[in-house]
Write a structure and sequence with these properties.
Blueprint: E1 2-4, H1 14-18, E2 25-28, H2 41-53, E3 57-62, H3 68-72, H4 77-93, E4 98-102, E5 113-117, E6 123-127, H5 129-134, H6 151-160, H7 166-187, E7 190-194, H8 212-221, E8 227-232, H9 233-236, H10 244-251, E9 255-260, E10 263-265, E11 271-273, H11 285-295, E12 300-303, H12 321-339
Helix pairs in contact: 4-7, 10-11, 11-12
The structure holds D-mannose (DNO).
The site of D-mannose (DNO) has 13 residues, from β4.
């Protein structure tokens, strides 16, 4: 059981995280190295020593961001892939076992409201497709993204991606994975690709990690055991086409990292994030955990986005209280199902 922690600038102290029952480690990252450059050993060491001092493991990194030139397949990608491999070696040396990353062009996760108020007074993230279409992609930034581009850069990127089809993007992912697998073999680090959130194309940009079919394609193209998944229930679950219980069962052993959270559909496509409890939303959280356990899942778990509750005004999705409740709930599910 792990907890996402945004490094020294996170207002949640490691000591609080440690107090959550059964919490074995944090999921974190080096945040002050530009995307595409090598994470220096010294910086990784410093981060790890903070975790060590709090008696928390640092075995999962989320994320090592992938440079846009790799995603769009520019000639400069080889240099960035080499850097990425170098970072993997440095991380492996520091005891990291799993690297979470995504392959979404330009934008990471998208929501239209970061503080939607529920009748009980809590606030959570929500997605409204009609509202999203009104947003200007050239002027968009959400908290927690690894990249933040200026309007000009965004414009340039959106232009560049006009020629990148789904097939091209997929080939570029395969090229990237093949390029870094030798480093993963050497360092014994598992790559865990995060699904696109939400799992459909955005602003004309292709998205390719959207469900079961993508999982099949990705494992088939790069069967190396170090090529695996971050199973994010809230991201995959936003598409009604995805049967999460069956995916969890089928890929349990390839899922190296599970992000578990609940969503409630507001209509066919729009959704609001709720507390983790199965009954609080539309995803079969207990069924998913059961499928993971019975399928032989042996990876890291973290409670994903929480609401802001009890007067907390935390980073949207990443406050302390509701994620701690989520961890406690997930602990209960795992413990009960493992003992069954
Ligand atoms: C959002 C997160 C994502 C995730 C990246 C992984 O809360 O799940 O930002 O960290 O997509 O690279």
């Amino acid at each position: 059981m792990t907890f996402r922690w945004y490094g020294a600038d996170d207002c949640i102290p490691l000591a609080y995280i440690k107090q959550i029952p059964n919490m074995s480690g944090v999921v974190t990252a080096v945040y002050d190295t530009p995307v595409g450059e090598v994470w220096e050993k010294e910086k990784i060491k410093k981060l790890k020593s903070m975790c060590d001092a709090a008696a928390l493991e640092m075995e999962v990194i989320e994320s090592v961001p992938v440079h846009e030139d790799i995603k769009s397949g520019k000639p400069s990608r080889d240099r960035y892939i080499e850097n990425y491999a170098h970072t993997i070696l440095n991380l492996g040396e520091a005891g990291v076992k799993c690297v979470c990353y995504n392959f979404m062009p330009v934008f990471d996760w998208l929501r239209t409201d970061l503080k939607k108020r529920a009748p009980d007074g809590s606030t959570g993230l929500s997605y409204d497709h009609a509202e999203l279409l009104k947003l200007d992609p050239k002027n968009l930034h959400l908290p927690g993204w690894d990249e933040s581009y200026t309007a000009d850069e965004l414009y340039g990127l959106l232009e560049e991606y006009k020629s990148v089809t789904h097939e091209k993007l997929f080939d570029n992912l395969v090229y990237f994975l093949k390029g870094i697998m030798p480093a993963c073999d050497k360092a014994n680090v598992n790559m865990a690709i995060h699904p696109d959130d939400p799992p459909w194309d955005m602003f004309g940009l292709p998205r390719i990690v959207t469900g079961q079919e993508s999982y099949e394609k990705i494992t088939k193209a790069v069967p190396n055991v170090h090529n695996g998944f971050t199973f994010c229930t809230g991201s995959l679950g936003a598409s009604r086409d995805n049967d999460l219980v069956s995916m969890a069962k089928k890929y349990a052993k390839r899922i190296y990292f599970a992000h578990i959270r609940q969503i409630k559909f507001d209509n066919e496509k729009d959704f609001t994030e709720t507390g983790h409890f199965t009954g609080a939303g539309d995803l079969d959280i207990i069924g998913i955990v059961r499928a993971l356990v019975n399928g032989g899942f042996d990876g890291y778990v973290r409670p994903d986005h929480g609401r802001n509750i009890w007067g907390e005004d935390g980073k949207p999705g990443y406050g302390l209280f509701d994620r701690a409740l989520g961890a406690a709930y997930l602990n209960g599910l795992f413990e009960a199902i493992q003992k069954e």
